[in-house]
């Protein structure tokens, strides 16, 4: 365990080898998993979703994530819905559904369902189900990669049913523990002072037969070590995607897309042309995750060289599109996180008013990045990049409904070691900023600007120097030659 105890998360964090998702806030594991397998054709991510997390809105939409996975260019996610029936103190929705209801629901989502519920032989049942799932994944991928893709393929999903707190204490103080919400997190909270609870804890821990699993010196016995893979690529904690898989993005010369000083230009139009060239330079390591606003945000120049990657739309299936458009900011954020933390680079453009939807997701990600940077064996990863338009400072056609500067404030509340906010004053400065942010590592970057035409104040060379400095005196806009500027 690295670092002082006060710095250790109560949930899984970046200090745990193989981890790409900060725990604590529920709803995002599945979307992060789908982002991780994009452009990773040989990767299978097994994502366990508890029936409590499955009640969240983001998870409810994430079940559709497979519809954005091209089996030619990307890997696969194997979801395992773990139903144990209880949350902290209430039954779960999925726990109150029978097998037929579960099967019909996930069939409607587009999955093949296999239910694992044989408690007497759970290990063999689950192992056989995993083998089945991997065969189905391979079948879908091989067909697509042979040029004969299955239309609307049904990816496997496993539903695992076990009692809450299974194999733990059965009862305590006259109340059920196993099979009830009393088993959540700390089933024996008073073991330090209550002899009955201490005795139950001892019986529980001895049931794992640790003396058969470990030597007297505390190491695993030979039988356990014999099944540990010798190939480091098969060890979860050493997967390059989660530790050192960063692929630097190739940014084209932004000055090729610059516009003349004194003209009028939409920052987003100019950026769209730059992103078009970025996609050409990075055909397998760069994606845009957009909540159905790419054209509205005037970034549609990218469609000159790519399309949308929506596999259940037959017209766009198999086109290798670099744009994921889904009307859920949560899913865009989750996929972007998974894509970024496994070594690639992404961009999330959105209106100002709606980035606040993923405020807490961004903060959880920043916590993960903080711990990752402080964990010496972790390699750097790309930055999380946002472009925000339709700002409070300018009335668009939507006006009041699309004004809410809260996301800027959320990022400014983070330490500068983790986050940056950019306010480029014109199109040329915006081009320089985007090129910089795509190359930057370990940050949360927010770039704010207008999609409407605005004056171009600086030449490409002047914009470059202005952005390098971070701020500069514009003498042409000063009444006293810049000696004592008001701003």
Q: Encode the helix/strand succession as letters.
A: HEHEHEHEEEHHHHEHEEHEHHEHEHEEH
Helices, by number, come to 15
Given helix and strand content, the structural type is alpha/beta
Which regions are unreliable across 5 or more consecutive residues at pLDDT < 50? 1-7
Spatial gap, N to C terminus: 48 Å
Helix fraction, binned, reads 25-40%
Rg (CA only):
26 Å
Q: Main sheet: which strands, in order across?
A: 9-8-10-11-13-12
User: What shape does the CA trace take?
Assistant: globular
In this structure, how is the largest beta sheet organized? 6 strands, parallel
Strand content: 5-15%
What is the number of E strands? 14
Mean pLDDT: 92
Overview of this protein structure:
The structure is a single chain. Helix content is 31%, strand content 14%. The longest helix has 24 residues, at 122-145. Strands 9-8-10-11-13-12 form a six-stranded parallel beta sheet, with helices on both faces. With 487 residues, it is of the alpha/beta class. Mean pLDDT is 92; it is low at 1-7. Its cofactor is thiamine diphosphate. Pfam families: XFP, XFP_C, XFP_N. Residues 8-246 form the Xylulose 5-phosphate/Fructose 6-phosphate phosphoketolase N-terminal domain. Keywords: Thiamine pyrophosphate.
Set down the secondary structure blueprint.
Blueprint: H1 29-37, E1 44-50, H2 57-62, E2 76-83, H3 99-109, E3 111-116, H4 122-145, E4 155-161, E5 171-172, E6 175-176, H5 195-206, H6 210-213, H7 222-225, H8 240-243, E7 264-266, H9 267-281, E8 286-290, E9 323-325, H10 329-341, E10 345-351, H11 352-355, H12 359-374, E11 384-389, H13 406-412, E12 419-422, H14 427-439, E13 444-448, E14 453-455, H15 460-469
Parallel strand pairs: 1-2, 2-4, 3-4, 8-9, 8-10, 10-11, 11-13, 12-13
Antiparallel strand pairs: 5-6, 7-14
GO molecular function, one term: aldehyde-lyase activity
Pfam family, one: XFP
GO biological process, one term: carbohydrate metabolic process
